[in-house]
Specification:
This protein is α/β, with parallel strands linked by helices and 482 residues long. Helix content is 50%, strand content 10%. Helix 12 runs parallel beside helix 18. The radius of gyration is 40 Å and the shape is elongated.
Length: 482
């Protein structure tokens, strides 16, 4: 400032400025000085901030030009692949330091910054965790938004749903390596899977209370989208009458375009599958109560193989899961869940088939039952179902008509094939004695009051005419109209 004032003094001396002029010059000089000071202060602050920033970044020793180049290259790659990018992590432990477990409320913001597991693979992971019961999975999916949220959830949040032991099991299996291992197992056994989020998953199954989150399958998955489906269940230790009735009903129902659903078990189940397979245009779906790669019982293996190639076999249990008693009631809910109606053919008072019927009623499906003898223990279950309101059916067209698929004019009740006019009296006498209940040859001949030679000749003639058949050595039944 002193130099400035000296300038003014010299000017006053040289130009003889008056006092007012000198005051104006002073004010001008002071304003210029204040403005210069403000600019200098601002510049110093900017330099100080830059120095502090450099001190923070100094340990990384990153070249700014390199960072700019890498950033530009990353932006170009991101721009090209943004729409088709598949989000995936190799292991939850790899991102734990950078992206620790978040609560469900924080997860949405975390997903914007960290790669996430694909939804259908998250369902597969959840179903693959050993020891996770269905009700626990349902509780997890109710509490969290999706299985992806479960995969990334904080332990404290999981403990809000599961007890400590199952929480530890879940966390110890939280790895994409488990999913990859499971996918390899499926590939090795020739099986695939669909998750409940996939378009192939049947809508009708989503409507039940606890639908399976994953279905493993072999065969034609499009059969799950069949317009009309009928579940067929019954006794494992069925009678010959039950076997014949199953063949009669299923053959005609399958021929009408209705897909047959059953459990690939012994007895009525496997006979229903066989009848659908041998029917031209017939389709059938088997629901297992064990792993998708296991045929139980083993004697049904040929049917299982045929269905895997030409029809469909499904299970909510992955490879290697052995058949256990508690798995079969869970399987039954899938049979009824996939079906628009369920037909019960022979069932004891406390039969597993009645569990399927109960599931059907709970799911709003129709239940059909075939009546039987009051004294027959295999008919106690079906007769009780009819008494409680199940549809009594006497022929396959009762069901077909109810499905509004096909209407037939002729009487379709289960009647016997009429004998030819040309048959003799001995043959007619035998026919009048035979029914769908197997009868031994000695008893037939004795009750018909024929000699052995007459009886054998009559049985041979009736067999060749297709009016009777030998169900196993020495036992005959009368053929029914199909």
């Amino acid at each position: 400032m002193q130099n400035d004032y000296d300038t003014i003094f010299n000017a006053r001396l040289k130009k003889r400025m008056n006092d007012k002029e000198i005051e104006n010059v002073k004010r001008f000089i002071n304003e210029a000085y204040d403005l210069e000071n403000e600019d200098i202060t601002k510049e110093c602050e900017e330099v100080r901030d830059e120095n502090e920033l450099n001190e923070v970044n100094e340990p990384n020793e990153v070249n700014e030009s390199d960072v700019a180049d890498e950033s530009k290259e990353a932006d170009e790659v991101s721009g090209d692949n943004k729409e088709n990018e598949v989000f995936e992590v190799s292991d939850i432990n790899e991102i734990r330091e950078e992206a620790p477990y978040y609560s469900s409320t924080e997860l949405s913001s975390v997903k914007k910054n960290y790669k996430c597991l694909e939804l259908r693979r998250a369902y597969l992971w959840l179903s693959a965790v050993s020891g996770m019961q269905l009700n626990r999975i349902t509780q997890l999916l109710t509490y969290f938004e999706s299985p992806v949220d479960v995969f990334y959830a904080q332990k404290s949040d999981i403990l809000q749903v599961l007890p400590q032991r199952q929480t530890d099991i879940l966390l110890s299996n939280r790895s994409v390596k488990l999913i990859e291992s499971y996918e390899r197992k499926l590939e090795n056994c020739g099986a695939k899977y669909i998750a409940i989020c996939d378009p192939e998953y049947p809508d009708i199954l989503k409507t039940i209370y606890d639908p399976p989150i994953v279905l493993f399958y072999k065969g034609d998955i499009s059969l799950l989208k069949s317009e009309n489906t009928l579940g067929v269940v019954g006794a494992r230790a069925m009678s010959f009458y039950g076997k014949e009735i199953t063949d009669i009903f299923v053959s005609k129902i399958a021929a009408s375009g209705i897909t047959i659903i059953s459990g690939l078990a012994a007895g009525v189940d496997v006979e229903a599958h066989k009848a659908a397979i041998k029917t031209e245009g017939g389709k059938t779906v088997g629901v297992l109560g064990c792993g998708i790669d296991i045929c139980y019982p083993k004697e049904n293996y040929l049917v299982y193989e045929d269905m895997c190639k030409n029809h469909l076999v499904i299970s909510e249990n992955g490879p290697g899961i052995e058949p256990m008693a508690y798995l079969f009631p869970l399987r039954n809910r899938i049979i009824s869940g996939l079906s628009k109606g369920v037909l019960v053919i022979e069932a004891r008072k406390k039969s597993g088939s009645l569990i399927t019927a109960d599931s059907s009623l709970e799911q709003g499906r129709n239940v059909y039952a075939i009546p039987g003898k009051l004294t027959d223990k295999l008919s106690e279950g079906t007769n009780n179902l009819i008494k409680m309101g199940a549809f009594l059916v006497t022929g396959p067209n009762d069901i077909i008509s109810d499905y509004k698929k096909t209407y037939l004019d002729e009487d379709d009740s289960c009647s016997y094939i009429e004998p030819l006019d040309s048959i003799g009296n001995n043959e007619r006498r035998l026919l009048s004695m035979l029914s769908l209940e197997p009868m031994y040859v000695d008893d037939i001949i004795c009750e018909a009051h024929l000699t052995v030679s007459e009886g054998i000749a009559a049985l041979l003639y009736l067999s060749n005419a297709g009016l009777i058949k030998e169900v196993y050595k020495g036992f005959y039944i009368r053929n029914a109209k199909k």
